[in-house]
Each structure stands twice: as structure tokens, then as C-alpha cells.
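job 3f2a | input accepted
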Amino acid sequence: MSELHQKAVRLISGLSDDNISFLIEIIQRLMPQETCTEDNESTGLQAFQRLDAARADIKQYLPDGFDPEKELEDARAEKYGSIN
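job 3f2a | predicted structure (84 res):
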């Protein structure tokens, strides 16, 4: 490892987690998009997985027989009236 790399490691090791997160964001913005694509894809996948898990948790708070499509249809009919 070069002396410059060692200096960077020493500086980074003294930072708080919040500052390291900020530094990572800056580095990702400076790097060409091709190098960050994998990280962005995995972050997007993780976000989707969290959303999917949250949907299962939210269902426990909804009344039995709740139909989101019917609720949406009723709300649209109430707001816009019948299109037929």
C-alpha cells in the first residue's frame, strides 16, 4: 500500500460513522457511474426487500377482508364520479 493510501486510511479511521457515510456519498458522486452501478442495484434491491417486508407487517393492522383495489375504486368514484 502506498504512503498516500496509508494516510487516507489513517484519516478515515479517525472519522465517526456519520462522517464516513458522508465521505462514501462524496466518493460515489466523484466516481464514474459504471463503478457505482453494482452498489446502486444492491441498494435498490434492499429497499424493495424492506418495502415487501413492511407490507406483510402492515397487513396485520388492516381489517379482515380489506380489499385495496375496491378501496381505490370507491375513492375514485367518490372523487370523480362515474365515468360510465
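job 3f2a | The mean pLDDT is 83.
job 3f2a | closed
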